[in-house]
Amino acid sequence: MMVQTTWVALILGFWSSLYLLDAFLKTQTLSARKYKAWLDRTGFSVSVCQLRWYSTWMNRTFVRLAQWRPQFLRTWFTCGVFFGLVAMLVSVLLLTLMVFNTLIRSTVENQVLTPIMPGVNLPTSQISYYFLTLLVCGILHEIGHAIAAVREQVHVNGFGLFLMFIYPGAYVDLSSERLQIISPMRQLRIYCAGVWHNFIIVLVAIAVLFLYPWFLMPFYTTGHGIVITHVTENSAVSGPRGLTVRDPVTSLGGCPVTSIKDWNTCIAASIREPSLGNCLPVSMITELDTSSKKKIDKDTKSLYIDCCNETSSTHLCFMYHTKKNPDNVYACLPARATTDRPICKFQSDCYAPNVEISCVYPSVDNQTKLLRVVHGHKPPLLFLGHPLDLHYSVILSNYIPNSALIPVNLPYAIDTFCKYLISLSGALVILNVVPCYALDGQFICQGFIELTLRSTIPDKEVRDAIFSLVVLFGTVLLALNVTLAMWVLFVG
What we know:
Elements: H1 2-27, H2 29-42, E1 44-47, E2 50-55, H3 59-66, H4 70-105, H5 127-151, E3 156-164, E4 167-174, H6 176-181, H7 184-216, E5 220-221, E6 226-231, E7 248-252, E8 255-256, H8 260-272, E9 277-281, H9 282-288, E10 315-320, E11 329-334, H10 335-339, E12 343-344, E13 357-362, E14 369-375, E15 381-385, H11 387-391, E16 394-397, E17 400-401, H12 410-432, H13 440-453, H14 460-490
Antiparallel strand pairs: 1-2, 2-3, 3-4, 5-17, 6-7, 6-16, 7-8, 7-14, 9-12, 9-13, 10-11, 10-13, 14-15
Helix pairs in contact: 1-2, 3-5, 4-7, 4-14, 5-7, 5-12, 7-12, 7-13, 13-14
């Protein structure tokens, strides 16, 4: 809560300072003229919690794009009309079903619309992906409107970007006079172009998500281990002798690791199963043992015995038994030298002719495990603690770079960005096609009513009344879903 409050204070402070600076420069005699001229020249404008940039430099690009294969573009945007109308129907039915189920079942779980708010349900590490996705989706959405408009002989006055509070976006300024006099079908090609392009973004992102492993094959190795892409600072595995970024991990506690799935399986197995031991000759145990020779109370109620008295950072208390002494015997042994020996689960795993060998187990409580992590050519890391602490201390990838020049985070970045494109661009489709005031769905609904009802209902006032009722229903429907989603986020 403290972190969220700090971020809100910083954001409000930024907007307050920017607004006051803008007002100050506009009212000062010495700076007002030059400042206003600079704003006109650059296209920037400042208002309450909003920064805008507007320009006409993209207009020629829109004209050139609209002239590319006119017949193809006509078919392209006509497909967008059919998609927009079907998506509107599906979206309304879906949101209506969600409200109905909530009222009947008295539950607000599994909402279609889930607001994503930085600091609330969006991790700080994901903020850059979130804002970049919003900006990309917004720009391509508006470019769709602009190209469709130019193709339908509607003038584009300009294109702009904005930052509203913390959310980036884009907009296109079209000639409203020309837009109102063209046919309803041509209007629909323009109105549906934005959501159509958002849907295409979803399809492209899905394709990239499935195909990018093939494109990365020449630069990365998979199936032979995993690589560390991030280590949490001040964690149990950080530090000079700990795990570092780009370390390839091939084994965890004697469990082979070839993928993140293997890593998770090994972590789960280490939590569920007793600690493994290592095979050591009894003579070596006696030679390496540095524990005090005082008698250990066998009736102790402690879950484990520390025969090293917590005085050594390199030694650990192990327990074992021999033929002469079937009860547990404890020895303080060097942890690294002990874990370098063959792994055993039972005493029978350590048989050797003419040599008495015992399986020594770390003397730790049930929650603590001694795990040997093999990471590249470095000495193995000996982790002593709960396996989940190790699991949450690192971020891993299945793609091991073939060269130090190849970025280790590229596969993760592609994967994460594509998933954000799918979810956010898909959400924009669901939102924008709803027949709601100020959304594309309002204009799509108006164009569809004019296209289908103008011949059967010649009275424009009746058509306008139908349009107003549909848009009112869509606005209330969307408001209910957003309210339920906010309830889940902050209350439920």
